[in-house]
Each structure stands twice: as structure tokens, then as C-alpha cells.
Amino acid sequence: MDRSNIPGKLIAVEGLDGSGKSTQIYLLKRWLELGGYKVFFTEWNSSVLVKKATKKGKKRQLLTPTTFCLIHCTDFADRYERQILPLLRGGYIVLADRYMFTAFARDVTRGCRPEWVKNLYNFAVKPDITFFFNVPLDVAIGRIMSGRPSLKYFEAGMDLGLSNDPAESFRLFQGKIREEYLRMVDEYGFSVIDAALPIEQQQDRVREVVTEKIDLDAYLRRSKK
């Protein structure tokens, strides 16, 4: 897509469940807001249009790898058309808690062809910055398991038949997703953050990268100029 008529900037965060990416993008959002910048936040799988259908499909375990991919793409396309693209055109810094790379990792792990999945999302602009929070698999799983009484069917990747034990299935599923993310680091130019570092150190690095790559003064609200 031609970016000449899109003055805004798009920053996305990616990583395994338990990598701490959501914490980091929240901290970045608050930092930008307090600085008086025009900021908008969006997160994966949050479209009101398809939320009920997604919830029902998961609850009844009706989603195949293909329908799982398509319903998440529908969710993404709705948010992209109604939120992400208009705000980028309006000159905002848009923060995305997961972007299309989540689909590239998860749907390919579920068996969908990489070329097919990527083609579904070819309408979307590439982020100006994509942070990948790289965390050891055992650390990520430990964080998730310590805070969950139980794992949900699709969350644990039980639909893939990796293991009858939800915890083991989750570990294997997340391991495969991590492999897909690592394949994308060079291809899409991810900014890799060591997610095993203290939260404050991670956030310092995130802010450094944002400051280096984006002219933040251009996104100050007029009242702050």
C-alpha cells in the first residue's frame, strides 16, 4: 500500500503468551499519552463484529485450522478498516497488541500454508516498528501456568492432537509458534527485545527504538505544541 497518504505510524508487539508484550505496549502507551502524543491502541481478536461468533466457535470446538484463520482475519480486517487505517490517516501513532504476524505464526503452526495465510493479509500496511519479545519457552510457559487455573482447548493447541495432556500440548504448541516467530525476525525486520530482562530495562529499550525511528514531535497534540 502507498504510504504517502498515511502520515501516522504503526507500532506492533509480538511474542508468545507470557512474553510480557502486553505489559510493555501498555507502558509505551502511557508514556506517549503522558507526553501529549496522539495515540490509539488496538488488540488482537477484539472486533465486536465477530466476537460472538469466535466465542461460540471456540466453546463448541467447531473451528478447523482454516476457519480459525479466516475468522481471525475477519476480525483483523474489521478493526483495520474501522480503526487502524483511519487513525493512521489521521496522523496518530497506532499501537497494536499483536498484528498479522500472530496469524502467520499460529495459523501456519496449525497447518495452513504460509503463502495462503500471508495473502489473506496482503491488504494491511507493514508496521513501522514491530517489537518481538523473545523469551525462553520455559519462562513463558511458567508465567502462564502460574496464573491460570486451567488452559482452554484452543489456547492449549488441543485441536492439533499434540498431546492428551493440556499442559504438555500447550508447551509443544507454543514451541512451534516460537519457531515460526524466529523465522520471521529477519524477513520482517523485527526489533528483538530480550523479554527475560527486568520490565524497566525492556521498556527503556522500547522507548529508545521508538525515539530513534519516529519523529515524535510530529505527533504532538496541537494543545501541547
Give the C-level CATH assignment.
Alpha Beta
Order of helices and strands: EHEHHEHHEHHEH
**Rg computed from alpha carbons, rounded to a whole number of angstroms:** 18 Å
Our count of helices gives 8
Morphology:
globular
Strand order within the widest sheet? Answer: 2-3-1-4-5
The SS-based structural class is alpha/beta
Would you count the extended β strands for me? 5
Identify the quaternary structure here. Answer: single chain
Tell me roughly what share of residues is in helical segments.
40-55%
Rounded average pLDDT = 91
Terminal residue distance = 31 Å
**Low-confidence runs (pLDDT<50, min 5 residues)?**
none
The main β sheet shows up as:
5 strands, parallel
Short description:
By secondary structure, the chain is an alpha/beta fold.
